[in-house]
From TrEMBL:
The chain crosses the membrane at residues 152-171, 177-201, 213-232, 238-256, 326-344, 356-380, 387-405, 472-493. One of its GO terms (cellular component) is apical plasma membrane. It comes from the Eukaryota. Residues 512-538 are annotated as: Disordered. Residues 83-497 form the Major facilitator superfamily (MFS) profile domain. GO terms for molecular function: organic anion transmembrane transporter activity; prostaglandin transmembrane transporter activity; solute:inorganic anion antiporter activity; xenobiotic transmembrane transporter activity. This is Solute carrier family 22 (organic anion transporter), member 8. Belongs to the major facilitator (TC 2.A.1) superfamily. Organic cation transporter (TC 2.A.1.19) family. It holds the Pfam family Sugar_tr. It is a multi-pass membrane protein. The keyword tRNA processing does not apply.
Length: 538
């Protein structure tokens, strides 16, 4: 008897699973808020130099840049009792007395003057947040495999609530960055535990649907963020508003059961049996649950239990050939998805459209994109879906090179299409990765794979700087990486309608079956060609 068959006995898709998926999905609404928060809390409004305090009362003349627009970072040098300069050849100086900002939004940019020579600190704040997600991936992956999925999920909720609230009260930019780093770490713990607890409690036939529904919560979260940002123009209040709900989610997480697979493979049979009986009762199958015994669990899962006594770690992902291939291809797919996704998602200001409207459009495209993705992964398979989503995204980004900035509608359309493909890619990757790695290494594999998405999201802002050399260079790099990631996906195993592998031996046997299936037609072809050779004229 396998885990899937045991799950069928207590109800593989009943009221418990619906409540379980709901409890996992609700916090995902807030994950979108934190991931994309700096679109609104770090908006750079129009600005110009503040006049010196001893300047005479009257109109303050600003120097013009090469495009004929007022300079944002320079002002004419002011001498007491001197007349105002009226030509572009007069001497200029930096904004020694600060800046005057247009608009009503209060952001970290306006509070800490992150403009001109300090403008890169804004990108650094986002990169440090992504660095938190990067480091949190392998750290919480290892901790989850050691202490369980549920404790890490609850701790991550509390950590995000506390660090997010701390960021709202930050007295300085360095303190703000530290709290945002901790927010990133906790988001990794939430994402990884949510994915694992979803796929391990939901039957094979429903995994794609439940994963996509959780993904839709992220989409809805983008709408919620736009609305909150429009209503709350003060960045501190907005930061606090999106953080406090995670205190409530940490309490709700006590209703989320631990992974039965993890409990059994960790030798916690009595707790696993108690959890199964509770699920059976909740699903209206109390009698079936009462029939289960500890001895039955041990007997039926003896092979998996024996294999689990061997401790696995990061080195095993490189030691076993099939896991090495899976890790390499998934890492490239994750890297290219995060790399390209955040180049579009965090570049809302660059398209010349109202940021609230464009954020709603960016969120809205996820609805059809993820719906098409769920149909594709359910009928065409995970491998084909993953490959083509990244290829299409790469093509859209490369197409931006040939569209003039004077055609904002076309550029926005291509960006929205590319972002939709990359959102679908994320949805597919979370499911696909959890299905490819065996249970004994699943959380570790998810953590390592996720690291590469965060590396990509960290590097993306730095790549944009290359646009100062040639405007088309960033899109060439982003598009090419997406094409490479899509190509790598075609070298992975197909997981459609397959049970989750429990041990390393399971995935090795699976790989051998695939290789054998590919080799079987060859002898038939050879046997058909022999008569043609021997039966011809001499």
């Amino acid at each position: 008897m396998t885990f899937s068959e045991i799950l069928d006995r207590v109800g593989s898709m009943g009221p418990f699973q619906y409540l379980h998926v709901t409890l996992l999905a609700l916090p995902v609404l807030g994950i979108a808020n934190h991931n994309l928060l700096q679109i609104f809390t770090a908006t750079t409004p129009a600005h110009h130099c503040r006049p010196p305090p001893n300047a005479s009362i009257g109109p303050w003349v600003l120097p013009l840049d090469p495009n004929g627009k007022p300079e944002k970072c320079l002002r004419f040098m002011h001498l007491p009792n001197a007349s105002l300069p009226n030509d572009t050849q007069a001497a200029t100086e930096p904004c020694l007395d600060g800046w005057i900002y247009n608009g009503t939004r209060d952001t970290i940019v306006t509070e800490w003057d992150l403009v001109c020579s300090s403008n890169k600190l804004k990108e650094m704040a986002q990169s440090i947040f992504m660095a938190g997600i990067l480091i949190g991936g392998p750290v919480f992956g290892e901790l989850s495999d050691r202490f369980g999925r549920k404790p890490i999920l609850t701790w991550s909720y509390l950590m995000l609530a506390a660090s997010g609230s701390g960021a709202a009260f930050s007295p300085s930019l360095p303190v703000y960055m530290i709290f945002r780093f901790l927010c990133g770490c906790s988001i990794s713990g939430i994402s990884l535990s949510t994915v694992i607890l979803n796929v391990e409690w939901v039957p094979t036939s429903m995994r794609a649907i439940s994963s996509t529904l959780i993904g839709y919560c992220y989409t809805i979260g983008q709408f919620v963020l736009s609305g909150l940002a429009y209503v709350i123009p003060q960045w501190r209040w907005l930061q606090l508003t999106v953080s406090v709900p995670f205190f409530i989610f940490s309490l709700l997480s006590w209703w989320v059961p631990e992974s039965i697979r993890w409990l059994v493979l960790s030798g916690k049979f009595s707790k696993a049996l108690k959890t199964l009986k509770r699920v059976a009762t909740f699903n209206g199958k109390k009698e079936e649950g009462e029939k289960l015994t500890t001895e039955e669990l041990k007997f039926n899962l003896q092979k998996d239990i024996t294999s689990a006594k061997v401790k696995y770690g990061l080195s095993d992902l490189l030691r076993v050939s099939i896991l090495r291939r899976v890790t390499f291809c998934l890492s490239l797919a994750w890297f290219s998805t995060g790399f390209a996704y955040y180049s579009l998602a965090m570049g809302v200001e660059e398209f010349g459209v109202n940021i609230y409207i464009l954020q709603v459009i960016f969120g809205g495209v996820d609805i059809p994109a993820k719906f098409i993705t769920i149909l594709s992964i359910s009928y065409l398979g995970r491998r084909i879906t993953q490959g083509f989503l990244l290829l299409l995204a790469g093509g859209a980004i490369l197409a931006l090179i040939f569209v003039s900035s004077e055609m904002p509608l076309v550029r926005t359309t291509l960006a929205v299409f590319g972002k939709g493909c990359l959102s679908g890619s994320f949805s597919c990757l979370f499911l696909y990765t959890s299905e490819l790695y065996p249970t004994v290494l699943r959380q570790t594999g998810m953590g390592v794979s996720n690291v590469w998405a965060r590396v990509g999201s960290m590097i993306a802002p730095l790549v944009k700087i290359t646009g100062e050399v040639q405007p088309f260079i960033p899109n060439v790099i982003f598009g090419t990486m997406a094409l490479l990631g899509g190509s790598a996906a075609f070298f992975l195993l197909e997981t459609l309608n397959r049970p989750l592998p429990e041990t390393i031996e399971d995935i090795q046997d699976w790989h051998q079956q695939v290789k054998k299936a590919k080799q079987e037609p060859e002898p038939e072809t050879a046997s058909q060609t022999i008569p043609l050779k021997t039966g011809g004229p001499k």
